[in-house]
Amino acid sequence: DAGRVVSLDEGHITTSEGQGYAMLRAVWSDDRETFAQVWRWTRRNLAVRGDHLLAWKWKGKVLDAHSATDADTDVALALLLAARRFGEPRYEQAALEIVADIWEQEILAVGNAYYVTAGDWARDQAFPVIHVGYLAPYAYEEFAKLDPARPWRRVATTSYDLLHWLYFEKGLKLPPELAQRSLPAQSA
After folding, report:
1. What is the 3-state secondary structure (H, E, C) of 120-170?
2. What is the 3-state secondary structure (H, E, C) of the chain?
3. What is the pLDDT averaged over residues 62-78?
4. 75 strand-pairing partners
5. Is the CB of residue 42 less than 8 Å from the CB of residue 54?
6. Using an 8 Å Cβ cutoff, are 4 and 14 in contact?
7. 37: number of CA atoms within 13 Å, CB side?
8. CA 142 to chain centre
9. What gap in Å lies between CA 18 and CA 127, rounded to an integer?
10. Beta bridge partners of 115
11. Are 6 and 14 a contacting pair, CB within 8 Å?
12. Which of 34, 53, 135, 187 has the fewest CB neighbours in a 10 Å radius?
């Protein structure tokens, strides 16, 4: 399939993350044709959830329809960059749709802090999962320009605050893969 990225080390599956990486690399390489092929395959095979987020795992069919926030972020950023580089407004519109759904389904508000969760499944957990490697403050700054109605810059600040806490307050030398946030009790 033209545009499909295959994970040879994972049983020839395709992940939304791999598709996002390919889209970013195509934009950075100024490869309009490859970008279009990868986005076309991604849209046709992974944008099947009924929203604008992507199913994260595919092999002949969707194996897991849950989203992965890092992939959704990378794909939205790639679309935004492609809109600018290739002069394609339809890419910006697609980016905005994904960004809106990232906000609605993958961002957790706790007071004045906005945490990037691992995927659409994580926000409703008693201890929502945050993949530290999924934090992309540079992307949230771009999303703030695209979607100024939402406080994306607070998402960037919260990401930096979490990293500061891990490295400077907890003294970790390397970031953990996961962090979990205990939520305050909700009032009825």
Report:
1. CCCCCCCCCEEEHHHCCHHHHHHHHHHCCCCCHHHHHHHHHHHHHHHHHHC
2. CCCCCCEHHHCCEEEHHHHHHHHHHHHHCCCHHHHHHHHHHHHHHHCCCCCCCCCCEECCCEEECCCCHHHHHHHHHHHHHHHHHHCCHHHHHHHHHHHHHHHHHHEEEECCEEEECCCCCCCCCCCCEEEHHHCCHHHHHHHHHHCCCCCHHHHHHHHHHHHHHHHHHCCCCCCCCEEECCCCCCCC
3. 98
4. none
5. yes
6. yes
7. 12
8. 13
9. 27
10. 108
11. yes
12. 187
Single-letter amino acid, residue 135: L
pLDDT in tens, 113-140: 999 999 999 988 888 888 899 999 999 9
Which two three-digit tokens encode residue 44?
């046709």
What single letter denotes the amino acid at residue 153? R
pTM for the model stands at: 0.93
Q: Give Cβ neighbours of residue 175 (< 8 Å, ≥ 6 apart).
A: 132, 133, 163, 166, 167
Q: How many residues can be counted in the chain? A: 188
Residue where the block lists tokens 């992309």:
136
